[in-house]
Amino acid sequence: MSLRAPNFPMPVRIALGAWQFATLLGLPRPKFREEKLIEAARKRTGLHEFGDEEFRHSMRALLRAVREEADLHLLGEAVMRSSIVRVLECRLRMQALEGLHPEIREQSVEAPVFITGMQRTGTTKLHRLLSQAPELRALTAAEALNPAPLGALEKSDPMGIAVRNAQALRAERGMKYMSPALFAIHPIEAQAPEEDVFLFDVTFTSPAIDASLEVPRYAKWIREIDQKPAYLYVRRLIQLLLWQKPGRYLGKTPHHQENLDVLLHVFPDAKVIQTHRDPLVVVASFSSMMVHAGAMLAKRVDPQKVGRRIANQMLNSAERAMAARESTPTDSVLDVHYKDLIEDPKAQMKRIHTFADLEWTAESGGRVEGWLEGNPQHKYGRHRYALADFGLDADELDARFKGYRECFGIEKESN
Prior knowledge:
Blueprint: H1 10-24, H2 34-45, H3 55-68, H4 74-100, E1 113-117, H5 123-130, E2 136-138, H6 141-145, H7 158-178, H8 180-185, H9 197-201, H10 207-212, H11 216-224, H12 228-244, E3 248-252, H13 260-266, E4 271-276, H14 279-295, H15 303-325, E5 333-337, H16 338-343, H17 345-355, H18 362-374, H19 394-400, H20 402-408
Parallel strand pairs: 1-3, 1-4, 2-3, 4-5
Helix pairs in contact: 2-4, 14-15
């Protein structure tokens, strides 16, 4: 097996070694006690009220996974604790903002556009291309990390906006330094469009956790629960985002593919674009990405376990999408194939504009061409991967995805 989980840069490894040694001498490690985390969020914000505290059930499930399953290294513990406190702060700030500004809950979310599909099928490229449409308002990475504005409890506090942008820029630079290979696979740029999956972090039911970490009980749990409460809370977050900056919302995450029925229940007038690509290439590519992501958090990453986990999750997602599509109005979802998007992105953008009732003009074409020129494929490095790296058999995997491939007419491609 040629693939190995990547190491951190040497200065980081030295610093982590010193930090680890300090914990042996009595420096406390990050803790994951529910009340202490909530206390930290309240102290940092100066706010107390969460409103409905049903989220605690999901938070407890995540904390059990972190403590009992995830096997995090010291940096992973620190990152995870910081993330949990950050989303608790978001919930506190949103509750306070809704109390001060009741119009937030009345904010219209009219005909949103959502991009979904299995990971590594062109969703990110399509998201950033479609964000060039002036009618659409995409979620940025800075907003994804902090959907509720920082600073004063207002929509446009200059200091709060500056702090939010600075935090996102630090996260971008940190990821680029700590794992340049992961950044090459999926760059998270502070002011670029980013995934709705970050909004699901605030619900404590994020599929990003079970994709990047070996947490089987948590993974099983989030796929068995009713997804509607999480989607309704994400709708509130989108209302909060639109209150800060109006527009027709443009979202994207592969998570929507396995919840198309819930997505269209919560957003009944949404336009959904579902992307498709050879699942053998997709499984290998995303498995490689999750090996890199897992190494940022966990002590040990076994590529073969990652490959099996990702293959199962992707098959489940594809099958749930096929089942949902049987009863989904045909004018609600448009299929876009990766091959077509790569070969003629402008033609696909015209199709999508027609489908989503967006105006296509000479200016639209110029914006698309400008983005393509400034963002060539492999801009941050070439991503190399193979099924063999993950102990997966191509014929066996192809047989498992036969129904999905035939349903959407997906061609095989060479890696």
